[in-house]
Amino acid sequence: MRHPMRLGRLLSLLLLGGPALFGCLSEREKTVRRLLETRECEGCDLTDASLEGADLEGARLKGATLSGAKLARARLRNADLTGARLWSADARQADLRGVRLDDAELLRAQFQGANLEGVDLRTADDLESVNFEGANLRGINLEDGSLTGWEGPYRRPKKAHFYHVPTGGALLMRADLSGARLRSAILAKCNFEGALLRGADLRDANLELANLEGADLTEARLSGATWIDYSNCKKGSVGRCIPTRPR
Predict the structure, then answer these.
(1) Residue 189 reports pLDDT greater than 80
(2) Predicted pLDDT of residue 158
(3) What are the residues facing 176 on neighbouring strands?
(4) Quick one: pLDDT at residue 27?
(5) Angle in degrees, CA 74, 180, 68, rounded to 5
(6) Can you tell me the distance from the alpha carbon of 2 to that of 124, in angstroms, rounded to the nearest whole number?
(7) What is the percentage of the chain residues whose pLDDT exceeds 70?
(8) Of 28, 91, 131, 215, which residue is most buried, by most CB within 10 angstroms?
(9) Which of 122, 82, 118 is closest to 66 using CA atoms?
(10) Burial class (CB in 10 A: 0-12, 13-18, 19+), 240
(11) Torsion sign, CA atoms 150, 154, 155, 156
């Protein structure tokens, strides 16, 4: 004979995921649960964790491993990801405004459609391999930084020397970089096709062989920038590159 009260209690535990079932979870699942409950997980292992749409605003994830983590549409506003590893993490359409990414490793991370408005990316690593297609990068700070390196997926042909090692730039198609601080940044071979660069500070930036087809450079400051054809933009160039002399 079945006992209705016992059966009802069991169903409640299954639906609510109460403490009695906590011991049945894997260590990874326990870690995820603690993170969601406390937003505190410094140095923890969240490899391949499922966190789609999670509310992690202000979460402390310093030094955490988030390689392969599923963070699509997650809310990570003002989260601390200092020194975190996000190799191949899926953060598409995530809200990352105010996030700290100092020394974070972003190798092949996916930020398509994500919101990183105003984020400081100067000390983040492996940015050349990141996909920022359609992302909100308004007002980001990348002064003296680089979106070009060994892992860059975007390449355009150039005359090579015997010692030349091919490198590429980040993917930024249709990204919004309005007002971005890109002074002296290395942006060679980046794909800015259809991107918004209105009012961006590109003074002294390196844009060699970058794809700027359809990009909007209205009011962008280009004094001293190295243009896609290796020429230098004349002092006072705004909105378009007025070349001085080719390299």
Answers:
(1) yes
(2) 56
(3) 136, 196
(4) 83
(5) 30
(6) 59
(7) 85
(8) 91
(9) 82
(10) exposed
(11) negative
Q: Which helix (H) or strand (E) holds 29?
A: helix 27-38
Half-sphere exposure of 18 (CA within 13 A, CB side): 8
Pairing of strands 231-233, 243-246: antiparallel
Pairwise CA distance, residues 100 & 194, whole Å = 28
- CB burial of 127-150 (b: ≥16 within 10 Å; e: otherwise) equals bbbbbbbbbbbbbbbbbebbbbbe
The pLDDT tens digits of the residues spanning 164-182 come to: 555 899 999 999 999 999 9
Q: Which has the closest alpha carbon to 215: 182, 245, 185, 174?
A: 174
Q: Write the CB contacts of 157 (distance below 8 Å, at least 6 apart in sequence).
A: none
Asked if pLDDT for residue 23 goes beyond 70, the answer is: no
Partner residues linked to 232 by β-bridges: 226
Question: Averaged over 202-207, what is the pLDDT?
Answer: 98
Residues 6+ apart with CB under 8 A from 96: 76, 77, 79, 111, 114, 115, 116, 119
Q: For residue range 73-131, what is the model confidence (pLDDT) as tens digits?
A: 999 999 999 999 999 999 999 999 999 999 999 999 999 999 999 999 999 999 999 99
Cα 86 to Cα 45: distance, rounded to the nearest angstrom: 11
Give the number of residues written for the chain: 247
pLDDT in tens, 129-162: 999 999 999 999 999 999 999 889 886 655 555 5
Amino acid at 30: K
| Distance linking the first and last C-alpha atoms of the chain | 89
